[in-house]
Amino acid sequence: MCRNIRVLYNFEPPATDDEVRAASLQYVRKISGFTKPSQANEQAFACAVDEVEAASKRLLRSLVTNAAPKDREREAERARARSAQRFA
Prior knowledge:
- By secondary structure, this protein is mainly α.
- 64% of the residues lie in helices and 5% in strands.
- The chain has three helices and two strands.
- Strands 1-2 form a two-stranded parallel ribbon.
- It starts with 10 loop residues before the first strand and ends with a helix.
- 5% of the residues are buried.
């Protein structure tokens, strides 16, 4: 599951709200051990996702760098090449 959490900082265009939400959901799934929580845990799970999302957005807004923004397509191409080499 952790491989689904991607770096969201310093990309052009910046990470979307949907990308931050998806990463937050994956994080909570990983640490809770639930892919889909039971009804008894659903509210706590949803609350945790909301809080992680809010913290992630605050973090991404507050980070600073002098590095040039990364290109999403180029990074995706590099990841595909690494994957092809690893699983070839």
